[in-house]
Amino acid sequence: MKILHLNGFTDVDKANFIDPIRRNTIDSLLQLLAACKEIKIAHDYSIQIALHEFEIWACQMKTIQENIEIPDRMIRCIQIIWKSGGIQTAYKKRWSFYLLDSAKYFLDSVARIGGDDYLPEVQDIVQCRFPTQGTEEITFRYENMNFCMVDVGGQRSERRKWIHCFDNVSMLLFVAALSDYDLLDPENNNQKRLSANRYIFKTIVQSSFFKEAAIVLFLNKFDTFTEKLKHQPLSKYYPEYTGSSDPNEASDYVGSQFRKCVRDKNKYFMFCTTATDTRNVEFVFASAVTHIINQNLRATGSY
C-alpha cells in the first residue's frame, strides 16, 4: 500500500530494510544447508573450504540483528555454495522443507546486497520477510475516500496488544499464505500454519470489535501455491479435500473453510493475491473496495 498510494519508500525507509534483507539472504542458505543434511545430499569436494568458512561465519552472525555486513570473501563463499550441485539439488526439492520464498531472489543478488553502498530497491523490500511487531499505521486517499490502514502483529504474543484497541472498524483485511498448507505452525507443531491462520481468523472475525466490519480475506502467495500443488497435493494434508490440484479449485476450497468462520456471509469477500506483484495487489484492493462500497449501498437501499 505504501508503494501504491504513498509514493513508495524514502532512502531512510529503504536503509531500514538492509539488515532484514541481509538476514533473509543468510538464513536462506542456512535453510538449504540444513535441508541437505536432512535429505542426505553430499556436497562437492570443491566447495568444502567455502562451506567451512561460511558455517563458522554464519554461526558468529546468529546473534547479530543490526548493522549486518557481508564481507567480500563471504559474498564469494555464498556464491560458490549457492551455485554448487548439492545446493541446487536441494533447491529443486524445496517443496519438501521450509525455505523462504525469496531465497533464490536474494542468493542470486548477494553481490549487490552485500555491497558497501547497498541501498535496497523496491523489489528487494517487497521480497523481504520479517515479522510485524506492535502496530504500524499509514493513511492515504483512494477514490476520493480516506483510508487509515493499521498493520498489526501476526504473532500470538502481539495480538493481545491490539485486538482490544479497535472499534468502529469499516474493513478488516486478513492476509493468509495459501502456500502454508503443508507447513507446521512454528508456535504449535501439532497443526499446519494454514489451519492456525484459520483459527486466528475465526477468533478475530467473531470478535465484537469487528461485528460491523466488512471481512476481506487475501489468500496470498497464489503463485507459490500454484507451483507447490504440482509436488504436494492439498489432499495429502487435508484429506477431506477431494478435489484436484487445480489451483483455482484448491484455493476455492481453502476460501470456503475460512468463509465458515464468518457469521454474516454478505460481508465476506475473498481474493487470491501475489503480494510481490504490486499490480496484482492494486487490482485486488480496488476490487475489494468496490465490493464493499456496493454492499454498503445495497444495505442502505441506494443500489
Automatic annotation (TrEMBL):
Query: Listed GO cellular component terms?
Result: cytoplasm; heterotrimeric G-protein complex
| Record-level GO BP terms | adenylate cyclase-modulating G protein-coupled receptor signaling pathway
**Which Pfam families does the UniProt record give?**
G-alpha (PF00503)
PROSITE patterns named among the record's database cross-references? G_ALPHA
Residues that hold Mg(2+) according to the record? 132
Instruction: Give an example GO molecular function.
Output: GTPase activity
Full protein name:
Uncharacterized protein
In its UniProt entry, the species of origin is given as: Panagrolaimus superbus
